[in-house]
Amino acid sequence: MMVKEVRVRFAPSPTGALHIGGVRTALYNYLFAKQHGGKLILRIEDTDSTRFVKGAEQYIVDSFAWLGIPFDEGVHIPNNQGISYRQSERKPLYKQYADFLLENNKAYIAFDTPQEIEEKRKQIPNFQYDASTRGGMKNSLSLSQAETQGLLNKGCQYVVRIKIEPNEEVEVFDQIYGKVVVNSSVLDDKVLWKSVDGLPTYHLANIVDDHLMQISHVIRGAEWLPSAPLHVLLYRYLGWENSMPQFAHLPLILKPDGNGKLSKRDGDRLGFPVFPLQWTDPVTGSVSNGYKEQGYLPEAVINFLALLGWNAGTEQEIFSMEELIADFSLERVSKSGAKFDIEKAKWFNHKYLQQKTTEQIAALFAPILQEKQIEPPKDYLYKIIDLVKERITFINDLWEESAFFFVAPDSYDQSVVKKRWKEDTATHLTAIDNILKRISPFERDALHDAVAEYITQNSLNMGQIMNCLRLCMVGKAKGPDLFEIIALLGQPQASKRIIHAIKTIST
RNA sequence: GGUCAGUUCGUCUAGUGGCUAGGACACAAGGUUUUCAUCCUUGCAACAGGGGUUCGAUUCCCCUACUGACUACCA
Fold this sequence. Notes:
Number of strands: 14
Shape: elongated
Structural class: mainly alpha
Distance between the termini: 89 Å
Strand content: 5-15%
Radius of gyration: 32 Å
CATH architecture of the largest domain: 3-Layer(aba) Sandwich
Strand order of the largest sheet: 1-2-3
CATH superfamily of the largest domain: HUPs
Number of helices: 21
Largest sheet: 3 strands, parallel
C-alpha cells in the first residue's frame, strides 16, 4: 500500500468562540502534521444554519494567528483551485453522494416530521429509528414506490437517512483507544440530509470532505468516539473503506472541580478564561475574557495545553513549539480525561515571562503604559523592569508592581502606619532625608550604607526605619529592594516623598 | 435506560510481573529579605474495591463500584 501524505484537519463549527479544548485538538493536529511533514487544514463545518454565529469564523482565524498555529490550507488561505473550505459552500458536492447512497440502497427517504418522531419517542421508551422500527415509519422503505413518488410530487418535506444493516460488528481502530467494536444494531439510521435547511448533517459532510480532501488522520475530541462506527459504515457504503483515514480520539478536558466537560460557564464561575481571545457574543452582548487579554503568553498557553493529556515520558516540562513537534506522538496521549488546572497555566506563564528579555517585556508593557498615559524614559523603564520582572506572573501584574515608580503614593497602608509609624519616626526620616541629600553618586550601596550607619548610630533597629522609609516611597509594605527603589527614584523625588508622607501621616 | 470508554498523590502525570511507586503544579515548614513576592531546601501526599493467574501483582484476566462521553433534521 502506498504511504499517504499526512493531511490532517481542524474542523470547527462557527457557533461561537473557539473553546480551549478545540485549541488543544488543533494543536495536536498541528504537531502531528509538522512532525510528519504533512499539511494542516482549517475547514469550517457550518452545516447548522440555525446555530451559525456571525464573526465566529474570523474569531477562530484570529485566535490561531495569536497562538502561533499556522494552517496550510483553509478558509482564510487563498487557493487557485477554487476549493472552498466552508461546508455551506460545498452543498452540491454532498448532494451527489447522498444520491449515490440512495441509488445503492444504503440510504432512504423518510417523511416523518420532527413532531411525529418526538411523539414516537414519548410513546416508546428508548425509541430509535433503525432496522427494527423503520418499517412502522413513513419512509421509502415502508411505503410503496408509488406512494413515495406521490409524496415527493406533492412536495412533502423529507430527510435522507442512512440504512444501517443490523447485527454487524463494526470495528474502529483508534490510534489512542485501540480497537473499539460496536454492534450495528445499537446504531440508529442517522439523518444524512436535513429537510429544514436542505443541508447535509455533520456525518455526511464530514466523511465526504475528509475523503475529498484526502485526510489521512482524523484527530478529534473523544466526544466523537461513539459516532465513529457510523462514520466507518459511511466510508464503507460510499466505497471508500480502503482509503479511510486513521482515527485518533483525544480525551476530554474536564472541569477543575467535580466532573464533566469543561465549559465556558466553568471559566466564568471559577474566574479563568476558556477562550484564546476576548469574545463578545453578538446576540447577548456578553463579553468573555480571553487568555491574551488576561496577560497570558501564547507560548505558555501552548505548552500548558500540550501537556494536558500528553507527555514526552521524560521529566521535561518546558517545551518550545519545535520541541513539541519533535517529541509529540499519539501513542503517548493518555486515554483518560484531564481536569483543567489554571494554577499550572499560571506557573507556565511565569516561567515563560522570565525567559523574556527586558526589551521584550517593555514592548509588552507599552500598551498598558500608553493607556495610563505614562511615557517613561527608556533606560528608566528598563531598570524598573529588571527590578520587578521576577515578581510577576502576567504582564498585567507589571503595573501593579511598578506603579509607584511612575506615580508617587498619596495614601499609605493604614495597617503598616499603625504598626510601624511611631512618634519619633518623622524626626528620624527628616534626618535621613538630609543625609540622602549629601550622597553622591546616588547609588544603591551608598544609600544602604548611609542609612545603616544612621540606624546603628542612633541605636535603632533596621525594621523600624526601613518599613517607614518604604512606606514613604511605595505607600505600602511591598516591593523590591528599598535602596534600589530610592536610587532609581533619585534624590529630589525621594526627598519629596519623605516630606509628603510625614505631612500626610503625622498630621 | 442503552452503547462505548476511563480509573496511580488534591491536580497534571511517569513507571515496572519483584522499585523506598518518580517528576511537576498546589499546599506546608525552613532559609534568603527591611517588607511583600521571587528564589533555594525540605516535607506532605497515590496504584478504586473484590476475585483470579503467578513464587510474587500497581502492572495480566474477570467482576463490581464510581466517573464520563454519546444516545437531535447540533456539531
